[in-house]
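Before going further, learn to read the protein records used in this course. A complete example follows; check for yourself that the lines match position by position.
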Amino acid sequence: MENNIVHAGIWSIVPPLTAIILSLITKEVIFSLIIGIMSGALIHSVLTGLGAAGVFTVTIDTMIGKLADGDNAAMVVFLALLGALVAAVTRAGGSASYGVWAAQKIKSRRSAGLLTAFLGILIFIDDYFNCLTVGTVMRPITDQQRISREKLAYLIDATAAPICVIAPVSSWAASVISYYPTETGVTGMQAFAGSIPMNLYAVLTIFMVIWLAIRKNGDYGPMAAAQERVQRQTEGTARDDPRENVPASGFSGLSGELDQFAVSPKGRVLDLIIPVAFLVVFSILAMLWYGGFWEGKNLFDAFGDTSAGYALALGGFGALVVSFLLFVPRGLISFKDFFTSLGNGIKSMTGAIIILTLAWTISGICRDLLNTGDYMASLVAASSMPVALIPAIMFFIAAALSFSTGTAWGTFGILIPIAISICDIVAPELSVVSLSAVLAGSVFGDHCSPISDTTILSSTGAQCDHLNHVATQIPYALTVAAVCVAGYIVAGITIPLGFAASAAITLSLSLALLAAALLALPKVWKAKT
């Protein structure tokens, strides 16, 4: 397939637009992704002369190629193992006991939201790991406190990529550094560290998460409607003991396949904490192992060179072994029921795996066959822009590219070298600010895109309908993005004062604007259910 790469021009944006528009109209994300994929395959087949059969061969070849990719295959394995682990812990009664403990200790919606945000910030190494682990751990608490699954999915998504993209020791930092041009005289690590205070979308999103967790009536738009719906549905029906309603308030939220089994009454809170703790520890150790830490590399280089998918799969397998040794010998669950629950847990992840596979496929067609990224990047390179507007324009272009392709990392690889090259020629003082704008715009576009793998995994971790998550999250993301645009204009104007002074002015003004917006929007954009 690599020999058939074409430059499709404006046609290259048809597949992602088709998938996005159809998903918003039909509310069927799988159907929309398939049509988007096949539209891209049709364009490629027409331009390369493959004929009608090419539509199907391009589709299948790209899909198989993406699944054959080691990291993608490892992520599928990890999702399956995580589903199995969740099912085993639920069946053994650990989730129910955790729900009882949570009901006793977490007495308010504010505490539940803050704890979710804290865990999201704490798990900064990898966004995939963040999405699935925080969702798994916090779902019973947020259910008990009547926080909607849409709100939980937002809290997960908003503390995944935004945290990883400003954490020096993370898979995201390693990606950014690898794309930074080496001939600039500044190391990738120096540029990344300098970009952190000006990465407005990440910083402001974290501020917004904490704000929404603290304020009682801070939600607005579709999210407020989702919260009101949960309040009406659960008013007067909450149960004191989650053992009475495991699918609603338990660890997994995986109904259907798990409902047919009785939950063990002998499970304890440690029967949830221990497997999750081993999942975290094993995954971190596996990241260091695959990154070569024990072969002499330092900690940062090891995290930078690791294979996150492989490490997460290995961590999931190790946690599953621990759960078997913890549950079966103590009689919490029989040998047969343990493995039966594993099968049902894997089945529960089928939908997420299908969506993720289709998202990888459409991303591959856009990026690898139609050159969507190159086309959009060429528009930037060919345009003339006022120097002060470079950061704001870079933010917008990065957002559009990331939204269209569903990948922030792919956007990094395309736009970082272009942004730095442009600044080296016309405005060297804006290099770090423009890098920050590219990173911020990429994360924003990734957040809004229904075909983004991080967005999909956030809805999976929260057990929330994927399109509901997208629809409720977009107004929040747009709020922060609007402030970011204003902030980057200010940064472009104030950069002659020096980077430190410009960063202080930009960040202070941006936080003030966001706070004002968050005070006003709940009053003017009320819930409509």
About this structure: Residues 236-260 have pLDDT under 50 and may be disordered.
